[in-house]
Amino acid sequence: MTIRRISSGGEFEAKVGYCRAVVAGGFVHVAGTVGQGKDAAEQCRSALSIIEKALAEAGASFADAVRVTYMLPDRHEFEQCWEILADTFGANPPAATMIECGLIDPKYRIEIEVTAVLPE
Q1: Whole-number Å distance between alpha carbons of 44 and 33
Q2: In terms of C-beta density within 10 A (0-12 exposed, 13-18 middle, 19 or more buried), how is residue 57 classed?
Q3: What is the distance between the alpha carbons of residues 50 and 17, in angstroms, rounded to a whole number?
Q4: Where would I find the H helices in 24-91?
């Protein structure tokens, strides 16, 4: 099986020892991704933009997403992201899980992890 690694050059990739996405076995596994902004909604948009670029580099898109995990330090902030997520995944919603947990830095309000299937 061929494995391809995709790096976004993010600051934590080198510090922690991971890459933005791995293409393997017909799937694209996108690492947990945080974004920039003052609140969960802005950070959600920013993280989705980073994820979209990784998916595109792998040859996939949000329409190919089969699984998504949302991690937030405060579950009450998740609702401000719902419309953004519904617009992003549209008619092709993936299976999803939301987890309330601590993130790597308190400034981050949401982290998003995506798994997509490569289109045939």
Answers
A1: 9
A2: middle
A3: 18
A4: 40-58, 82-89
Q: Which domains does the chain have, with CATH numbers?
A: 3-117 (3.30.1330.40)
Chain segment 24-75, per-residue pLDDT in tens = 999 999 999 999 999 999 999 999 999 999 999 999 999 999 999 999 999 9
What is the residue type of 119? Answer: P
DSSP state letter for 117: E
Question: Which residues pair with residue 71 across a beta bridge?
Answer: 99, 111
Model pLDDT for residues 95-109, shown as the tens digit of each residue: 999 999 999 999 999
Q: Which pairing describes strands 111-117 and 27-34: parallel, antiparallel, or unpaired?
A: antiparallel
User: Cα(4)–Cα(15) distance, rounded to whole angstroms?
Assistant: 20
Look up residue 14 and give its two tokens: 């080198």
* pLDDT confidence of residue 15: 86
Residue 11 DSSP label? H
